[in-house]
Amino acid sequence: MREPVVTREMIADPKTKYGDARASTRHFFLQRLSGASNILFTAFLIFIVVRLAGAGRADVVGLIGNPFVGIPFAILFAIVCFHMSIGMNEVIEDYVGEARSNRLAVSLNAFFALAVGVVGAVSILKIVFWG
């Protein structure tokens, strides 16, 4: 089944229904919320980078192994991956033409972001709890 062709007039007319309003609002809100939390965590990330500049492995494990540093760092990593997933979904929805390719690309994007987020957060938490 082919999707209807969307014209410029359809998009410009506020009376036409184009897309899912709730999903669009949810994506907009979640992207802004995750972006704001990323801004808040940026100072924390800068602290980690400056603190670990030129440090050896033992110093890195010692700093990230501190629960007050490692747990927020793992949360930051997960939020950044979530934000990346939402942003890439927007790019896919805007630039991938066919519905079948769009669904595959969105699914692969979700899998990739989830895999990177889980591997990164679990790796950080492993350092926190098991050194």
Summarize this structure as a short list of keywords or feature phrases.
SuccDH_FuR_B_TM-su; SQR/QFR_C/D; 3 helical TM bundles of succinate and fumarate reductases; Succ_DH_anchor; 131 residues; mainly alpha; single chain; Succinate dehydrogenase hydrophobic membrane anchor subunit; transmembrane helix
Topology, please?
Elements: H1 8-12, H2 21-52, H3 57-64, H4 67-95, H5 99-130
Number of separate domains? 1
Residue share in helices?
over 70%
* Multimeric organization: single chain
Largest sheet descriptor:
none
Order of helices and strands: HHHHH
Beta strands, count: 0
Class from secondary-structure proportions = mainly alpha
Distance between the termini: 54 Å
What characteristic shape results from the CA principal axes? elongated
* CATH architecture label: Up-down Bundle
Question: Mean of the pLDDT scores?
Answer: 86
Using only CA atoms, what is the Rg? 20 Å
Tell me the strand percentage band.
under 5%
SS field, number of helical segments: 5
CATH class, anyone? Mainly Alpha
CATH topology: 3 helical TM bundles of succinate and fumarate reductases
Give the uncertain stretches in residue-range form: none
